[in-house]
Amino acid sequence: MTEKLIAKVISDLALDKTFDYLMPEELRGDIAVGSQVKVPFGRSERLGFVLRLSDHSEYPAHRLKSIIALSENRTRLTENLLKLGLWMAEYYCCSQEQAVRCLLPGAVRSGRIHTRKENFHYLADREGAERFIAENEGKKRFSTRVELLKNFLSDFEYSSSEFLEKFQKNTAVLAPLVKAGLIKTESRAVERGIFGSSELVASSPRPPTEEQAAVLNKFDAMLEQGGGVMLLHGVTNSGKTEVYMQAVEKVRRLGKGAIVLVPEISLTPQTVRRFRARFGDRLSVLHSALSDGERFDQWNKIDRGEADIVVGARSALFAPIHNLGLIVVDEEHESSYKQSETPRYHARDVAVVRGKIESAVVILGSATPSAESVENARSGKYTLCEMKNKVSCSVEPRVRIIDMRLCSAPAAAGGDSGAGGNTGNENTGPGRMGSIFSPLLIESVNDRLRRGEQSILFYNLRGYARTFGCELCQYEAHCPDCSVKLVYSRRNQTLNCHWCGHSETAPSKCPVCGNPEIRYSGSGTERIENIAAAVFPGARICRMDSDTMRRAEDYENALDDFRRGATDILIGTQMIAKGLHFPNVTLVGILNADQSLNQPDFRAAERTYQLITQVAGRAGRGDTPGEVLIQSYNPENEVISAAAKGDFEAFQQYDFEVRKILKYPPFSHLILLHFESENEQFAADYAMAVAENLKPYLNNDIKMAGPMPAPVERIKGKFRYQIVLRGENMRYLRRALRYMVLNTPEGGKVSFFIDVDAQDMR
Ligand code: ADP
Ligand code: ZN
């Protein structure tokens, strides 16, 4: 066999192409597949990754250049991760470089972050120190030295920062002791800590319930078989998280590592805390608030095997665990697992592929599993496990649907206009409230206030917030750059675009006809908060939405207040639906259950079911039974009534029927093609040309819809066109699409992207 002297390297240009380099003699032992290397490129140097080693090149030997060196940090991707990256490039129609890029945090890839070093001062000569103290104790001139040495005798060593903190002195005072050989200084790598100094009480596994034991037995069997995917369908509070932790413990005992994905780490602080309490130092947590340095340290710590359990959001899936035994995807149905920029991967699906490559078990957990996963379980691809009972014998919450048609005048049901124009006076008379708070809900909240219990009021904002307009000339305030209406904020007296962030001062009269009675209509959480304040005088109310919770601390503070009981009523959007546990919450009101149902998207029913289930799960987690009130104008609707009953099967049956007839996922694969341009005609023409090129691929199986303007036709000044492709076997089509998208010139007049398994159809 010839020796492999050629390395095929992808560089950090977004090219779908490897370049051949010679491996210089002195580096041959060090360079391997996955190594990050420095290579000459044109007249400059670049960083790249070795994708393959080979014994020949198509280029003549004299034209080949040599690899300059390994990257400074000697970063190396595991072969399994590289394999995963190459699969992603094919499946999600992106370049190999784009896929490999997302396997590594920027902080690691860029090579600009390095290990942090700190000086440590330690006692080098104990006897000498004791002698020094004995000889000089009481001499004024030596008092500082004696004092310091005494401390070193008991603490042995201090880092420079500890030293400063403890003695309020610079380490320069150590010079004479260093000179005398009593103290030595060395520079050591230190980790940038991510957990602060908060201590946690260690927790140990609980004896599993019968249902948990059955799931863990299945898990053992899968582990023994060398992998597989489990769909763990367990109601909220059935003990799924405990199962994850015990499964992690099992793989750890085999000397393997585990990755636990959660939808959004800032929204699941309790899960993180539980994992920390169980696994302590072996745990690494990756979240978006880490600094580059912290991320760099965590990545290397995992790579060195010092942490073998990783909890994190989407990108934690690529944590460099070398011997992976388990991947958990908690709340597997969550759409935040889909990345919204290239490569547009779905972490749940990529987790399944990584599991296969690494022979690891993958657990997909949810109280409301996605249609895709349910179908995969039904067809036998995944192993279905169910947990139908709550762990604690807490009383089931009582769920009722309130028929809002009986509560308000029909006019109020649609757009109820707030009077008062830009002075912002809220009309909170009973006629207006009726469309937002039913009498039963008001009475129930008042009950809680009297008993000192807490309520959560959930308001789904999606596509519905208060807009600003003129009744005389029908003027409506629109974003100048997006085809959506601006949303009025009373607090700031501004009109804001929730798509691009555009903000302007609210005009005091209609900019078209001059009418001073300009009005807002619709309801936002801010308005609900104001009405609630009027309806529940004296109650302590907190609103939680993307406007009030701009920073991570805002969120933590609001939750802390609520946990401490300093808030009586929490009003919020999707944000409050996530896995929060508050024992004193005995009432959950869903103000507008219909809102998400009316979205023009085939996943609207699924989202509504998930949302109601999730929000309702917040009620009655303590010893007090909870109550859930769902306000709806469609109380007979299959989705809402199934959600109210917690009847997942009934919902599934209904949802699957619709999807089957329309051939939507999971009964087909869906690929969304997206075109954007500042010039509408360019976008339309480009889409048309692509559609023309795709015609040969269409058949009985593969169907194309469009080109057509996207549901939101314009965002940030760009016109948007779409093509939707659906079919069961898309492999060849995908290959063609990949070729097309990778050959679309960068920086051209039209940007074209492909969203395989699109979740968001906007
Ligand atoms: P889920 O993730 O399904 O919502 P959790 O794992 O959070 O459920 O469990 C719900 C509650 O029950 C938690 O407070 C947890 O500590 C507790 N719990 C879970 N499993 C057990 C068990 N086997 N024995 C006692 N308590 C348990
Ligand atoms: Zn905008």
Small molecules bound in the structure, each named once:
adenosine-5'-diphosphate, zinc ion
What general outline do the C-alpha atoms trace?
A: globular
Mean pLDDT: 84
Beta strand %: 15-25%
Largest sheet: 7 strands, parallel
- Please tell me how large the radius of gyration is: 30 Å
Would you tell me the structural class of the helices and strands? Answer: alpha/beta
Number of helices in the DSSP assignment: 23
Low-confidence stretches: 409-432
Biggest sheet, strands in spatial order? Answer: 12-13-11-14-15-10-16
Descriptors for this entry?
7-stranded parallel β-sheet, binds zinc ion, alpha/beta, single chain, 32 strands, 6-stranded mixed β-sheet
Q: Explain this structure to me?
A:
With 762 residues, the chain is of the alpha/beta class. It is 31% helix and 23% strand. It has 23 helices and 32 strands. It has a 7-stranded parallel β-sheet, sandwiched between helices. A 6-stranded mixed β-sheet has the order 5-2-1-4-3-6, with no helix packed on it. The chain has a 6-stranded parallel β-sheet with strand order 17-28-27-19-26-25, with helices on both faces. Strand 12 (283-286), helix 11 and strand 13 form a beta-alpha-beta unit. Helix 1 crosses helix 12 (347-358), helix 4 packs antiparallel against helix 5 (143-155) and helix 20 packs antiparallel against helix 21 (648-662). The model is unreliable at 409-432 (pLDDT under 50). Zinc ion (ZN) binds at residues 479, 481-482, 497, 499-500, 502.
